[in-house]
Amino acid sequence: MPYIAGIDIGGGSTKTVVIDSERRILGRGLARSNADFDGVAQRSMGAACEEAGIDPSEIDYIAATGLGRYSLERRNIQITDLTCGARGAATLYPEARYVLDMGAQCTRAIALRDGGKVKTFRTNEKCAAGSGGFLERVARYLEISLDDIGNLSMDADDPQPISSVCAVLAESEIINHVSEGRSIPNILRGAHDSLAGRTISQLKMVGFGQNGAQSDGGEDEVVVFIGGVALQEGMVVCCEQRLGQSLIVPEHPAHVAAYGAAILGLQRHLKRVDASATSEVQN
């Protein structure tokens, strides 16, 4: 039985998913990203293999994705994280028609074709105010753990607006809120709502709501929320309020792109095996 690893080397963390020939997830790994992308990827894959109960040397095929995908020496193929995120979300939820992918470096809105292929997309990579990196800055300034942002945001009773689309100016607004004595939960909810507004605007640009089903959450409007920021409950709530419907959030949203990479890697591996077998028969 072949073992396939999908490794998503992102700006914030590196995720690995190990699957078998039936696309079953055997193990997941996570490591904080740094300048040594190859080393981080090896640690992440090692953790996934340990959970799967196999040795990294038993991996038959490795598909790399994410911004650091070219840095992974032991890879068989590299695939864009846009393609992998779409495929992973559609495999988990075949009814999905849109994907929101919010990570440390950028936010993407993706419209899907049948089979999990990308129909069209919009991405925000020019400014940290449109990604999870902005929330990391907010957490550092407020001296709280990034893991606590999602829950603290839910305690807000008077969310403070953050209107700037520039990360630097947005931080200035946060400083003003702090100096005025605004509570941390209210500032965090304002940050979540600001980011949600930009994100949902991107989603509408790729077609969400154009079939008139937005208000009643019709089947054609099913949206899957992936990426590390999807772990923050306050962010999910703000996006749902902006959409007017619920989002599907996978149990492990940060690993969805890695799962998609593993699936695409499995397809390539099986094609290679079939081609090799055909060649041997012909010879």
How are the elements arranged and paired?
Layout: E1 4-9, E2 13-19, E3 25-32, H1 37-52, E4 61-65, E5 77-78, H2 81-92, E6 98-102, E7 107-112, E8 118-124, H3 132-142, H4 149-153, H5 167-179, H6 184-205, E9 223-226, H7 233-243, H8 256-282
Parallel strand pairs: 1-4, 4-5, 6-9
Antiparallel strand pairs: 1-2, 2-3, 6-7, 7-8
Task: Please provide a written account of the structure.
Helix 6 crosses helix 7 (233-243). The chain has helices at 37-52, 81-92, 132-142, 149-153, 167-179, 184-205, 233-243, 256-282, and strands spanning 4-9, 13-19, 25-32, 61-65, 77-78, 98-102, 107-112, 118-124, 223-226. It is built from 8 helices and 9 strands. It is of the alpha/beta class. Helices cover 41% and strands 18% of the residues. It folds into 2 domains: 4-79 and 255-282, ATPase, nucleotide binding domain (Nucleotidyltransferase, domain 5), CATH 3.30.420; 94-249, Nucleotidyltransferase, domain 5. It has a 5-stranded mixed sheet with strand order 3-2-1-4-5. It has a 4-stranded mixed sheet with strand order 8-7-6-9.
The main β sheet shows up as: 5 strands, mixed
SSE pattern: EEEHEEHEEEHHHHEHH
* CATH topology category name of the largest domain: Nucleotidyltransferase, domain 5
Name the CATH superfamily assignment of the largest domain.
Answer: ATPase, nucleotide binding domain
Q: Taking Cα atoms only, what radius of gyration do you get, to the nearest Å? A: 20 Å
CATH architecture of the largest domain: 2-Layer Sandwich
Poorly predicted spans: 213-218
Helix content: 40-55%
Calculate the mean pLDDT score and round it: 90
Number of domains: 2
Strand order of the largest sheet: 3-2-1-4-5
Question: How many individual helices?
Answer: 8
* Gap from first CA to last CA: 25 Å
CATH class call of the largest domain: Alpha Beta
Q: Give the structural class.
A: alpha/beta
Spatial shape: globular
